[in-house]
Structures are given as C-alpha cells and as structure tokens.
Amino acid sequence: MNLAAERKSAEVTDWAARIGWVVGLLLFVAFVYWLMRQGWKWRGSLQSDLPELPQAPEPGAAGDVRLRLTGRYHGSTTAGQWLDRIVAHGLGVRSRVELTLTDAGVSVVRPGAGDFFVPADRLRAARLDKGIAGKVLTEGGLLVLTWQHGDRLLDSGFRSDRAAEHTDWVEAVNLMNQAGTARIAPAPAQDTPAATGGTPAAGHHAPTTTEGTAR
C-alpha cells in the first residue's frame, strides 16, 4: 500500500521546465522558418533578371485546343538542374493547375498563384521524369516542359490527376516543336563552282588575264 501511494504521488509538477522546452522548440521552428524565408528572398533577388511571365492571348487568338490537363504544378528549375529552383515571379509556388495546349502555346492557370503562358515558339521539349525542385515521384510520374524565358532555359514540372495523359502531352509538344523548327530551318546553300571544283555554269565566264599576252 505504501509503495502504491508513493508511485501515485510521483507526478511531474515541474511545469516551468516543460513550458521552457515548449517555448524553446517553438522558437527553434520559427528560426528555421525565418532562415528558409530569407533564403527564398535571396534566391529571388538573384533571379531578378528574369523578365515578367508572358500572359495568355485572347481566347479567339489562341487557336484550336489540342489537349487539356488538370493536376498539380510542382515548380520550375533551371533546365537540366532539378534542384536549382526558380522562385521569381511566383514560379516557385506549388499549386493546383490547369494546362491547355493550343496552336499558340501552353496556358498555365494556377488557382491561388500567378497564371502564365508559354508561347509555342518558346517550347523546346517535353519529357517524363520523376523529380523536380525537391519533389520526387515514381518513374514517369512527372510531366516536364522545357521552355525558353528570357536568356534562361527552364524546366517546369506538372503532375496530372490522370498520369496516363502525360504521354499524350510529351508526344504533342515534341511534334509541335519539331514542326516549328522545320518551318524556320534555313534553306540549304546552293553549290558554287568554287565549292564543287566544277566548271562555271553557262552564262558565266572565267576571269581573263593578260599574263599570256605579256609573255
């Protein structure tokens, strides 16, 4: 009976120590959050040369709708560097997203974040990947669009609510990019006598010289 009474009376009553630990933990979490926020601002200042994001054209000028996608936007990075996050102009904010592929380009609508538009002539490629900017998914679980913005080449990562749609987007964007490249490819240079080592074409005369006459 005496032992039971002693155990029952051995309750923790040092509330000052408990409160001190809780306050210290909260201060530590707040400090880490502050450091992360400062790092975010510092990264944004380094990317201040990035121009404003393009906005979608008028609905009638966008052309036919080729594909639509609803899902999540997971961020943008420098192309080929999946950890070099781009935060300028809200590109670092994760959000829900609705993508629309038209003849004019890709419209990115983000509820709660800034919308932007990728013109067709700035699309460079599309691929399936598994990670971007600290977000790792299963193999092929991420749709990555590579596009030109200012002097930078960016990768933007999206995940559809229906992952089977990713392949359709990769094929459509890459076909659009190939078609655009073919349209702007320079015409091949015409062969010239100097380049081919042949004789001058009809109507062209070789230059004359007075060397034989002088002799």
Structural class call reads: alpha+beta
What is the radius of gyration computed over CA atoms, rounded to a whole number of angstroms?
31 Å
Number of helices: 5
Relative strand content: 25-35%
What would the average pLDDT be, to the nearest integer?
A: 78
Strand/helix succession:
HHEEEEEEEEEEHHH
Describe the protein:
- The protein has helices at 2-9, 15-46, 165-184, 193-196, 211-214; strands at 65-78, 85-86, 95-102, 105-109, 116-119, 123-129, 131-132, 135-136, 142-149, 152-160.
- It contains five helices and ten strands.
- It is elongated, with a radius of gyration of 31 Å.
- Strands 1, 2, 3, 4, 5, 6, 9 and 10 form an eight-stranded antiparallel beta sheet that branches.
- 32% of the residues lie in helices and 28% in strands.
- The chain starts with a helix and ends with a helix.
- By secondary structure, it is α+β, with helices and mostly antiparallel strands.
List the helices and strands and how they pair.
Elements: H1 2-9, H2 15-46, E1 65-78, E2 85-86, E3 95-102, E4 105-109, E5 116-119, E6 123-129, E7 131-132, E8 135-136, E9 142-149, E10 152-160, H3 165-184, H4 193-196, H5 211-214
Antiparallel strand pairs: 1-2, 1-3, 1-10, 3-4, 4-5, 6-9, 7-8, 9-10
